[in-house]
Design brief:
With 562 residues, the protein is α+β, with helices and mostly antiparallel strands. A hairpin with a 2-residue loop joins strand 5 and strand 6.
Length: 562
């Protein structure tokens, strides 16, 4: 069957020798031992059929020595097994025939032409079970080290299926392979689920893994050929130079691909074997089988890791969302001549939006208004949100100028926030004694003023210094001043509103917001809020928000005489 299936000319040439050996060994046995025995009704030619069976092991020996068909230790192992199996079956056949001739001649049982065929069927039926038992006996007796090695590899294959943590799986595999194969170095590369490169883990899995690019010669060859690569089999040719260098960089003599659904998800790299031993064909075949199991185990562990991570993110986002909800004011302060309306539309992922109203002690006509956004998500972002809100609230009560509030808040937040985390913030001080708004801005979108009597909306003038709080050492912020008129509406908001994105990838933008505000000069705050909702959701057209949308509407509805 192997001869007929082989397409390579050299392989067919090697197998042809074995095929002829099997023919020369079995055909005489069938002719003299089975057919003539049946026709002549005696077994006098049985020995003539048994002797040529020596051609079977001889053909294997010739093919191994002449063509290096198999590793010599494997050949010795198989030869011993098949020789013993053939000898036992032949001996059993001769003894059975002789016994039947001696004790059952009167019943002419041995003269029956059916007996040889029945015995032949029994031989075929019992050959494989007998061979397996002899194989185990020979392995345990003469090849104990290799038997233990194969047994250990089988145990590894069974064990890795139950390990769901990727780091535990890799640590187990690396240690077992190093001890079982007695190699100088073991590493396992696993494709990064968030990128195209492959992370390389070695003996200490807890260390930061190295990486090998998807475009490297090793990854490219493993992806294309999907077979083990033995460095000693690579000719020192220019086209192999990069591949050899990649293997050398990983201290690897052998690389076995990890394939899942016919895609490369990693590889096992093995260093040189100790005691100058080499990797045999049986080693590589066992490692290929192990690699198939490892690929499934790695994929399962990676999926488990992703699901666990996703569950942790979901839990953290839920906690952060609850923290954010508790931070937002449940009631609005009562300031003469001021009407307030606020709203937050949460996204699927919680953002860092917050706002607050700060009543000034001893002055019922002043109020601090702050709206901000923390760059981080999850619990860390929620904690930063709590810290930022409390710090700003505290500084606003101690200082009456917005620029100083931001400077002192930045001083306290600097070094407190995690790396790459920052807070954008707008802080304004509303004073109904002189109908003014003083404000400073730290990287936050500037509010709009809707002047209802003019039916016009415009953005507050920009401040000169607008750096967010936290990422750099604090410095002095500047502030601006604007006079308010009766009926003015101040619209504070976070960037989630103007950065809302539709299916085409377009942002809602400041211009659209300004247009919506300008088209609603005379209505109530509730009507304006509803018009903003309608406009933003019509723009999104079913696309989920990518950030929270938070806004505060403040209307100067009644002017007091100062």
């Amino acid at each position: 069957h192997a001869f007929l299936q082989a397409k390579d000319h050299h392989i067919r040439r090697k197998l042809r020798v074995i095929l002829w050996g099997i023919i020369l060994g079995l055909v005489p046995f069938i002719i003299f031992g089975v057919i003539l025995g049946s026709l002549l009704q005696n077994s006098q030619y049985l020995l003539v059929g048994v002797i040529p069976m020596v051609f079977v092991p001889l053909s294997f020996a010739y093919a191994i020595i002449r063509f290096q068909l198999m590793d010599i230790d494997i050949w010795i192992n198989k030869s011993v097994v098949y020789t013993l199996t053939t000898f036992i079956i032949s001996l059993f056949y001769v003894i059975l025939i002789a016994t039947l001739d001696a004790f059952t001649s009167s019943r002419r049982l041995t003269n029956s032409p059916v007996l040889p065929f029945v015995l032949a069927l029994l031989i075929v039926y019992f050959f494989n079970p007998l061979r397996d038992r002899i194989q185990t006996l020979v392995d345990r007796t003469f090849f104990k080290e290799r038997y233990d090695y194969r047994k250990t590899m089988d145990e590894i294959s069974e064990a890795i299926i139950s390990i769901l943590r990727l780091d535990e799986l890799l640590r187990f595999l690396i240690n077992k392979l190093r001890d079982t194969l007695r190699v100088s170095h073991v590493s396992i590369s696993v494709k990064n689920p968030n990128g195209s490169n492959f992370q390389v883990f070695s003996e200490d899995v807890d260390d930061d893994p190295g990486s090998i690019g998807a475009g490297s010669a090793l990854i490219r060859v493993l992806s294309q050929q999907r077979v083990p690569i033995l460095k000693s089999n690579l000719a020192n040719l220019p086209e192999n130079r990069k591949l050899i260098n990649d293997l050398s960089a990983l201290n690897s003599e052998l690389a076995i691909p990890l394939l899942y659904e016919n895609h490369l998800i990693g590889s096992i790299q093995l260093g040189a074997r100790l005691e100058n031993a080499s990797f045999t064909k049986e080693d590589i075949q066992l490692l290929k089988t192990l690699a198939n199991q490892t690929a499934i185990a790695v994929e399962n562990a990676t999926l488990h890791q992703q699901l666990t991570h996703q569950a942790e993110i979901t839990r953290d986002l839920k906690i952060a969302s609850e923290m954010q909800d508790h931070l937002l004011p449940k009631t609005h302060p009562s300031i003469p001549g001021v009407e307030i309306l606020s709203h937050t539309i949460p996204a699927q992922e919680v953002g860092g939006d917050f706002y607050d109203f700060i009543e000034m002690a001893g002055n019922s006509h002043q109020m601090g208004i702050t709206i901000g956004d923390v760059s981080a998500k999850s619990i860390s972002g929620a904690i930063a949100m709590v810290a930022a809100k409390e710090i700003i609230h505290s500084e606003a009560r101690d200082h009456h100028t917005p620029s100083l509030v931001l400077k002192e808040s930045s001083e306290r937040l600097y070094g407190l926030l995690e790396k790459n985390m920052f807070v954008t913030l707008f802080y304004g001080l509303l004073d109904m004694n002189d109908f003014s708004l003083r404000y400073s801005c730290a990287g936050h979108p500037l509010p709009f003023i809707l002047r209802t009597k003019d039916a016009a909306a415009f953005q507050l003038p920009r401040t000169d210094v607008r750096f967010p709080l936290g990422p750099i050492r604090p410095f002095r912020y500047d502030e601006k001043y604007i006079s308010l008129k009766d009926g003015d509406i101040i619209f504070f908001y976070t960037d989630g509103l103007v950065e809302a994105m539709n299916r085409k990838g377009d942002f809602f933008g400041d211009a659209s917001l300004q247009k919506v505000l300008s088209e609603n000069p005379g209505g109530s705050l509730q009507e304006l809020k509803q018009n903003i909702f309608d406009s933003i959701f019509a723009f999104l057209d079913g696309v989920p928000q990518n950030d929270d949308i938070t806004f505060v509407l403040l209307k100067i509805s009644k002017i007091r005489k100062s």
